[in-house]
## 1
Amino acid sequence: MTAPTPETPAGITYASAGVDVEAGDRAVELMKASIKATHNDSVLGGVGGFAGLFDASALLGYTKPLLATSTDGVGTKVAIAQAMDIHHTIGHDLVGMVVDDIVVVGAKPLFMTDYIACGKVVPERIADIVRGIAEGCQIAGTALVGGETAEHPGLLGEHEYDVAGAATGVVEADRLLGPERVRSGDVIIGMAASGIHSNGYSLVRSVINHAGWALDREVSEFGRTLGEELLEPTRIYTADCLDLIDTLNTGSAMPVHGFSHVTGGGLAANLARVLPQGLMATVDRSTWELPAIFKLVSELGSVPQPDLERTLNLGVGMVAIVDAASADAAISRLNARGLVSWAMGTVGSITDAAAASGLDFVQGAKGVDGGAVLMQGNFAR
């Protein structure tokens, strides 16, 4: 038998390889209460099982239930959270990115799972992340039924982590929303974003690094530090969208035709995905003012407006497409719930002039051969 050498020490353990199983167990104990707060009578079992269980008996009341699923992460926004050592807001971001994709088709998100990969398990940090996910799930009315924390020493730095999540929802087949319901004359309703949300942070971080701005820099336009502004959690629209559906789409009437979640690619590209071929949404920029954080990014980095619009939400996090006769009622309902909303455009036919208008015209996006969007005018001041 070959004797151990300094290069091959005796007794290599999982812990000496960089994985702390006990720390993982402590993290689970710290997060249990947050997770349980999201559970309802449909969730079976507690935390720690191999699989989360959800009682699907309610689906028996559907004529033809369609399951909707989505998965996502929060991108390089985690770098801001790690630099500031603030971790619970990332959980809100994760939930919003996942469940608000599901509600776009009119589905109610039922349950969610999460995955956290890190260089080193710090129980309190992991518990903070999961606490934020649980808080986001409560806002969305979604149960957090399971998750996984994986320690990856050597692949991620000691203070680095990434998060991802997946959720499943349900919608009755004849209540499904989407391009097939959109008609010429429909009104486009914008719903205000809470900030940058969780897309475009590679651009944003590049801009602030180039400008030499520190995250702890106080910015008068924000009334707080730059870092605090950048960590503003993604607004979660699920409950508002479901309320709008429940309020307006009653009986055989379905004036709410669809939603668009404004994430990577910006407003025009995401709106085009939920329009049918041959129709175009004309969006009037003058109907809203560009929030301060987007003005700052634009000015600090001399970022061209087309690039801003292809990357960031620019103040609009969700869009509803509604029959014109119900647009005022929809806007009133959303505003009554505390969600600033407004009419920002209409749906019509694609014209040759629009198609030839250049960068302001988007047709087909993210692999969807759908409708088109024409951005017009200048932002309000």
Note: The chain has a mean pLDDT of 92.
## 2
Amino acid sequence: MVRSLALIFAALLAAPAAAQEMVVIAHRGASAERPEHTLAAYERAIDQGADYIEPDLVATKDLVLVARHENELSGTTDVASREEFEDRRRDKTIDGQRVAGWFAEDFTLAELRTLRAKERIPTLRPANARFDGLYEVPTFADIVRLVRAKEAESGRRIGLYPELKHPTFMLQYAGIDMVDLLLRDLSQLGITPQDPVFIQSFEIAPLQRLKQRGGGFRLVQLVKPEDGPADEPAIRYAEMIAPAGLAEIAKYADAVGAHIALLLTPDGTPTTLVADAKAAGLAVHAWTVRPENEFLPAMLRSGTDPKGRGCDGALLAMLRAAGVSGVFADHPGRAVDAVKGGKENLLCSVSGAR
């Protein structure tokens, strides 16, 4: 396996420089080092050199956009231990899946502010759990204020890459229009299409509405290996990434945000998706590079501990050689080192790979 990985590296290091330029998007902030979607995670990602930070957006009962990976709150906050909110527990069907828990749209912002964030996967990221209880749930406006403060401090631009979570569910079952809320916030915060902003969604109609009403913000259609958009149940993502489907996406979006399994074969060689997307006029951003062995292909793992750090630098190199123009990373510091730090950083832990 070490020999095969070394051969892959040889090919990657010979790749032309033009194929090696890509931006680093901090996935939920520096989520490999701090509880995700907290100001601490975003600030750490910015300090590590991330080009963009990515807040997933859900809405409160009083129509405030806040950052959580899901509208269900118990996985990332202490809500389940709060007796005063015990009666808020609900069962809901979201995008065809039955979900039990506590939901952001059933809380006002003031109530949500009393909760504290916790690590979502503490068995794999026990060091993050040390920060449980320290941070509150930030609003989108909080995140923008942080970005502006860090831009003033560092003298560099920092991009925003928000995702609208479950917008069709929120509109149909909660009466909350996520597109309206996002456009309202962008306008009130003085953010324009000339700023470094991408807006992403797994659904189609919200992006089409943003295309019509958003005034030119760059839009990203997210795709994954299974299923299809929640708002278009007859369509599969597999159809959308075929050349004809990509041509349709290009009518309303500027890029495709693709799961790594759609971009690389099991041995690390590229699929045709990047070339097909570029032929349609679309950029490609890859999600998500995580440093732990648990999330890496077998040939890029180092040792047998699932939470051990593997060769994520090699995966970044493969994606760069495949021609993606952006990559989501849970550890943006490692990604910045690999993407922008030179060939030496790409070698990672090849000698220890199994």
Note: Residues 183 and 214 are 7 Å apart (CA to CA).
## 3
Amino acid sequence: MTDAHPSFLQPDAAGIQTAAEVLARGALLAFPSETVYGLGANAEDVDAVNRIYALKGRPSTHPVIVHVSPDSDPGYWVHDLPHAARLLIDAFWPGPLTLILKRAAHIPDVVSGGQDSVGLRCPSHPVAQALLRAFDALRDGHGGVAGPSANRFGHVSPTTAQHVFDEFGSAVQILDGGPSKVGIESTILDLSRGFPALLRPGHLTPVEIAEVLGEMPRLPDGSDASAPRASGTLKAHYATRTPLALADADTIAATAIERSDERIAIVARPSAIGDIAKLPNVAFIAAPEDPPRYAQALYGLLRELDRSEVDRILIERLPATPEWAAVNDRLGRAAAAFDDDLPVDD
């Protein structure tokens, strides 16, 4: 965890109680999870949730995910909790799975971007769970926390308390829970239309979901026009401030040579790339060889590269295989942010 700082709350009993009281009085709080840090507000306080949108610079039509305690009743938040949702909750909560369900009428639509659905997740991070339990106690057992990633709209998500401070300074208090262990956002599965559909890949895979449901969820292919809007599903997303592009391993060196007048950071797995570290204009960063470690390191690496004095970031295009799907999704959206005519998301 980070050294003591006026904006940071430590994850002891006093710090967690203070954090819950921050949320209860309608203020914003950044909090840790196993995926990334969230920018939290009382999910039933319309003014507080609107402050999330304002601070992030996020369009109000983009839904936010409601985080709930392991002890709370997810049925409070939804019109109906289908059997498939109960199976997945039993199998994967607490954990990095968000379920999109029909929103209960008493839940404000500010959390769903005006839609009739709501995204629910129960994080596995022990500090997040302690916070949610403490907030539950202040809210008669219904302490949901709306919590998109704690970063400016379109920027790289934060995986440490320091990353959040780098984004917002002292504008928001931060509950410090150490580095996020998963490192990328949750898998989002839509159950609001009578069938399972993957809206965002994550640590939890479609195969794991299918093993519980007995059917493979529909996978995103750009043709599902009826899908609800969900966090992290616009074309451009997770963007660095330094221009970033993906390249096949066998063309990275050639690209670096062609751009010899630029200082280039190259991120690639050592097993997939030749000896390019000797190029005078190249800073080579060895990427992890396995998907979970790559995912955990990704956002911290992108933020570090943004602070370095490079003109361009080239990242090895990874295999188009299921185990790399979530990392490929994040890298593809980060690169797409540099197409001038594309929108960005957070």
Note: The chain has nine helices and 14 strands.
## 4
Amino acid sequence: MYSVDDLHIAQAAESFPSAYPEREPISGASRKPLTKSFPNAKVTMGVGYIEDRPKAAALVGRIVTSWADIEIQVTRLLAELMGANIPQVAAVFGSLRNSRSQSDALIAAAEAVLNEQDLLLFQAYISRKASLEKDRNDLAHGCFGVSVSIPDHIVWVAQSDFLAFTAAHKANQKTFDLKERQFVYELGTLERIAQEIVEFYNQLGFLTGYLTARHDGPRGEAFRAQRYPELCAQPHINEAFLAAKTKMQRGKTK
């Protein structure tokens, strides 16, 4: 076990290239309706077609698989809130199969032990988690397709819409327009989501460390006082924090 005094900064004598492939430029845009972005595109949907777009497939893979690490961080956070050991908390948390139940468990634990200031920050984190989880789940449970007129990006449709289209097609009903429900995920959009999940993973670690300092006496409280505004100002957390604060203030005025 190292103490803080054992650590020091040292510059490496050699420089090595990153082992990661070059990242795509990030786009702030969300997925785009197919009919508006590529109105003349002819799309082929089905299993395996995503492999025709290897860059997009790799990005979807990064997004989907990284969520397990988010859940590990959330389990650590729950263990801190409950004052329990991680293996026991992991067993309980893992038994809650749907996201709503997991969030309810987190919120119940937080409301029982956190003061108003910390609870406000925690609510911002929960809001941010829900937003990212929706992005991840859409990709994990959607259906993909490709078009020769869209050489790099991937076409996506909700599973429910693809099922409805399949049923309508089988019944020879021509009224269901699948194209109106299809979207294009550009590489830059997928890269942004992937990097934001990594960002949130680190932010969850920061929150757990901040809450752990509650048990460190005056030294911990001094750290928390300094750290709190820094956590509130983090990218994406800041917007969620302000929204949670406004909601709390409205609730007090009623």
Note: The first strand starts at residue 32 and ends at 33.
